[in-house]
Amino acid sequence: MIEFSHEEASRLSDAERAAVLADPGFGKVFTDHMVSIVWTREAGWHDAKVMPYGPISMDPGASVLHYGQEIFEGIKAYRHANGDIVTFRPEANARRLNESAVRMALPELPEELFVQAIEALVRADAAWVPSGDDQGLYIRPFMIADESFLGVRAAERARFMVIASPAGPYFSGGVQPVSIWLSDHYSRAGHGGTGAANCGGNYAASLLPTRIAQQNGCAQVLFTDALTEDTIDELGGMNLMLVHRDGKLITPALNGNILDGVTRRSRIQLAKDRGVEVEERAVTVSEWRDGVANGEIVEAFACGTAAVITPIGQLKSEDGTIVDFGDAAPGALTMSLREELTGIQFGTVADTHGWVHRIVSA
Ligand code: COI
What we know:
The chain is of the alpha+beta class. The chain has two domains: 5-167, 2-Layer Sandwich (D-amino Acid Aminotransferase, Chain A, domain 1); 178-344, D-amino Acid Aminotransferase, subunit A, domain 2 (D-amino Acid Aminotransferase, Chain A, domain 2), CATH 3.20.10.10. It is 26% helix and 30% strand. The strands form two sheets. Strands 1, 2, 3, 4, 5, 6, 7, 8 and 18 form a nine-stranded mixed β-sheet that branches. Strands 9, 10, 11, 12, 13, 14, 15, 16 and 17 form a nine-stranded mixed β-sheet that branches. Helix 3 (90-103) packs across helix 4 (111-124). The protein is globular and about 60 Å long. The chain starts with a strand and ends with a strand. 2-OXO-4-methylpentanoic acid binds next to loops.
């Protein structure tokens, strides 16, 4: 157990914070505190702090600024009706952070230290956890290489930080069906690349296709495999699932190129618990298109920590609309899967797997 030094801070008045919490949007306003832990090759992890939220200073030679050695996670804290504050499967995020760390040649962080850091920030900023429907505190743990050195090699100094921001639905329209743009020209990942790591570079590469998607009225971009340009990888920031008319779920298998989403994993487990068959395998755009045309594919949704479960209404590309669920979106199974998952997170549905991690007891 590492000791965190703690410096109290308060950036907004109670009334200003209440105004933010009433309509938080996504990722716009940050809480009063942040966590910082330093790593050096000689001393390991040390200097753990809960400190006032604010700008950090860094040497302009820091490797993250030149070679993008950075990884991050997304996890939420939820306020239960009785006032308890919980988070969801933090050890799964801790594990994934370390898998990303290995791929990006960053130091691994002991899992218990990751969980302790989340707990310390949530306790310090408990007043920032919103209580409205579909709201939570979105927590963003991340790690950067901040050794000042321009040679291209893994840095010998890094910093792990946690920041947090009250959040409503990720998409501005709320829990409404979104349109997705098929990226014809750009891929997110190639075999042997960093597609399975949650590193900033993957998102940097998605920004141009995402802008093109937005210019075409779509909220997210769909990436296909770089080789076939038909096999589906994932969306810009979330995994994809299709619902077959027989009730089974179909989702791209973890193929080394896509993110092992905690929401994806949880959704697959919960589906299996209720006897829903889940096929994790290669899925193609052609299969999705033809399946909707012949009535076999009846729903589609995006899943991720930020997106939770968001129904998909249309898939479009330069060639026109590929899939249109029309009035059938949002689908009934999508919404019931969403309610089950958020019910566990908000404490209204039994947590049979022990996924809910209590941080503050009312
Ligand atoms: C998340 O769901 O937490 C993500 O990381 C997706 C995105 C907002 C970057």
